[in-house]
Amino acid sequence: PAWLRRLCGQLLSERLLRPSGVQAVVRGIMEGTGADPGSAAVAGGAGAEAAAVDWRKCDAVAKILAACPQQCVSLEEYYGLVCPQILDLLHIQDKLTARQFQRVATSTLLTMAREHPQLAETHLLRPLLGPLLRCAAT
Is residue 122 part of a domain? Predict the structure, then answer.
C-alpha cells in the first residue's frame, strides 16, 4: 500500500541522515536480501553469476543512496551529510564486507557524478582525490 511505502521511505531517509546511517542502511539492505559477502569468491561460472547478482544489488543500493529524500531541505545539504559517509564505506576493515561496501560506494559515486556532477565533485571527488592532487602539485 502507498501509506506503507511512504512510511518505509521516511524511516529509511531519517536513518540515512544520521551519523553512520549510510553504513547501517547498506548493511541492513545487503544482509536483508540474503547477499553472501563471499559469493563472488565461488569458483567457476557460479562465481561469475554470483558476482553479477552482487553488482546488481549494490547498484540498487547505490540508487537509493543517490536519491535525495523529501525530508532534506536541499540537495546540497543531503550531499553534505551523506557523501562523507559514502567515502567512509571505502575504509571498512572486514575483507568480506569491504568488497560489497566498496562496490556500493563506487556505484553511488558514479550515479551521483552523472546526476549532479558539481555536487559530486565538491563532496566526493575532491575529498577522494585530494591527497593525490596535493602530491601531484609538489
Answer: yes
Helix axes of 21-32 and 2-16: crossing angle, nearest 10 degrees = 130
* C-alpha cell recorded at residue 63: 540508487
Domain that holds residue 70: 2-22+55-137
- Cα(114)–Cα(117) distance, integer angstroms: 6
d(CA 55, CA 127): 25
Structural domain includes residue 64: yes
pLDDT per position as a tens digit, 48-68: 566 556 788 888 899 999 998
Q: Which residue has the cell 559514502?
A: 86
Structure confidence by residue, pLDDT tens digits, 70-118: 878 889 999 999 999 999 999 988 887 888 899 999 999 999 999 999 9
Q: Grid coordinates representing 67?
A: 536519491
State the DSSP string of 8-38. Answer: HHHHHHHHHTSTTHHHHHHHHHHHHTT--TT
pLDDT at 38: 46
Q: Domain for residue 40, yes or no?
A: no
Task: Classify residue 98: in a domain, yes or no.
Answer: yes
